Amino acid sequence: MKQLALDIVAALSPTLDNFVPGRNAELLHNLERMVAGEADERFIYIWGAAGSGRSHLLMGAVAAARDAGASAACIACAAETQFGEGIERMDCVAVDNADRLGEAAQVALFNLYNLLREGRGALIVSGDAPPMQLKLRQDLVTRLGWGLVYQVHALTDEEKTRALMVHAEGRGFRLSGEVCNYLLHHVRRDLPTLLAMLDALDRHSLETKRQITVPLVRELLQAAPSPGSANADKK
């Protein structure tokens, strides 16, 4: 039980394959084409609210590029972020939360954009607002708006419920609407955590030979570390 509880917090590794697109199908398609080297456009900027899946998409794109044999890196931004030497020679660079960059780091991203544009590299950048609303250097804002720009739409509760039910069917069992509703109100609401919780429930159900019901979910949650609770992260 202890290990299963810990597994709830260890969400699934983000990939493009396990990203549930919802209203983001066109964005997902273009990212897949970009990392496969099939797209004409090599620059994409995505924005959306916390928990919408921005980081998932960037990490998934980098993972897909590496699987295809390309060199790729994902950088989580902070005020003093530095872009390592030689990164401009990579095939794909993902820069997450560019809105957090300080002045010097903004200059570095501006220079990286230009170097990748001159070369053959692709760049995916995320932020919390559309390019023109970012509180960044105007020359950098202009560059970020040159490529494709997409808003990442968070999944609705109905879409999350469908995703959970499809995931359950893939594991060989049916998930009731009552259990889905309980998960949405008592577990962190991002989809990777919800799916990880479902996997832990499936294993616990098989070990205890009990059906997945609300009491079983409650039992597992009571044994889980606090980060798995809904109150820990409302993003």
Textual characterization of the structure:
The protein has 235 residues and is of the alpha/beta class. The chain is 46% helix and 11% strand. It contains nine helices and five strands. It has helices at 2-9, 25-35, 54-67, 103-118, 138-144, 157-170, 177-186, 191-208, 214-223; strands at 43-47, 72-76, 92-96, 122-127, 148-151. A five-stranded parallel β-sheet has the order 2-3-4-1-5, with helices on both faces. Helix 6 crosses helix 7 (177-186). The relative contact order is 0.17.
Helix proportion range: 40-55%
The tally of structural domains comes to 2
The first-level CATH class name of the largest domain: Alpha Beta
CATH architecture term of the largest domain: 3-Layer(aba) Sandwich
Low-pLDDT stretches = 226-235
In short:
This protein has helices at 2-9, 25-35, 54-67, 103-118, 138-144, 157-170, 177-186, 191-208, 214-223; strands at residues 43-47, 72-76, 92-96, 122-127, 148-151.
Keywords:
disordered C terminus, 5 strands, alpha/beta, about 45% helix, five-stranded parallel β-sheet, Rossmann fold, Helicase, Ruva Protein, domain 3, about 240 residues, 2 domains
List the helices and strands and how they pair.
Elements: H1 2-9, H2 25-35, E1 43-47, H3 54-67, E2 72-76, E3 92-96, H4 103-118, E4 122-127, H5 138-144, E5 148-151, H6 157-170, H7 177-186, H8 191-208, H9 214-223
Parallel strand pairs: 1-4, 1-5, 2-3, 3-4
Helix pairs in contact: 1-8, 2-3, 6-7, 6-8
